[in-house]
Amino acid sequence: MTTVDHPALRPGFLADLLVVPHGPLARLEVVQESASTNTELAAAVAADPQAWPAPALLVAEHQVAGRGRSGRGWDTPARTALTGSLLVRPDVPRDRLSWLPLLAGLATVRCLRATAGVEAVVKWPNDVLVPAPGAGAGAAREEAGWGTYRKVAGILCELLPDGGAIVGVGLNVLQSERELPVASATSLALVGAATTDREVLLTALEESFAQTLGRWQAAAGDAVEAGLAEECAEVSATLGAQVRVELTGGGQVVGEAYGFGPDGSLLVREADGTGHVLHSGDVHHLRLRDGARAGAADGTSAGVPTVDGGGVPGPLN
Known about the structure:
With 317 residues, the chain is of the alpha+beta class. It has helices at 11-18, 37-47, 100-116, 198-218, 228-234; strands spanning 27-34, 56-63, 66-67, 73-74, 81-88, 121-123, 127-131, 149-159, 165-172, 242-246, 252-260, 266-269, 275-278, 280-287, 302-303. Strand 10 (242-246) and strand 11 (252-260) form a beta hairpin.
């Protein structure tokens, strides 16, 4: 593909749309290359917190060493994806920050449905999936462990020592099939999205996230009171699915994922009725509620961030 097929983001144009007084951001920076926008933003905030008022967004045209769960790495060809990290300082109790991955997933799904016209769903708590081409007609190729779903975006949330949080999002936009690292991944271009304009998508994503965060903060971080817990459940591919969760400390739980806890944890009920409240673990979808197999055959993790700065699994592995 030529550079015409991969147009560069225009920082000034995006700032006019997204930075106050016209948009939700206090600062926007676009860099040509970053090893990891989460790492780079965290370091910048630690070095000069006054220079990074929240919400602030760092976007990289080419991320070469993105981070996922347990140190898993990933990269994307330049100008084919949206890779960015958002600094937020939500005015909510710290123990409610565990909702951030689910809320970021909800905001991403809303953006993709409304702007790109794709029926995105969330795999608890941090992967965004879309139906593969031909899925509706029964013609899509099934991938072991994923069925006819493909991963189009991933989220990595990390808490900062000063009480802030960084929400990293990686969205595959323009990649061809040969540019994807695994067969279970896809891009918006490959699934026939209504738009693959990265500036349009970035603007819509930030506006969606600002709206979602605003509702959450207005309810003092109570996702149930805000109605956001119910909306997260509505876009979840995990709830209603048979899952196998490999626990962080060893062992596993197999059963039906039937709900979210008040902190965004996953509730799983075994066949004998035994219930579990899971805050972290490697989640494998065995069968989705619509009957199609899906999941994380490659060991993609899921988890909820802890108040000591623990992360959640991340973008596009």
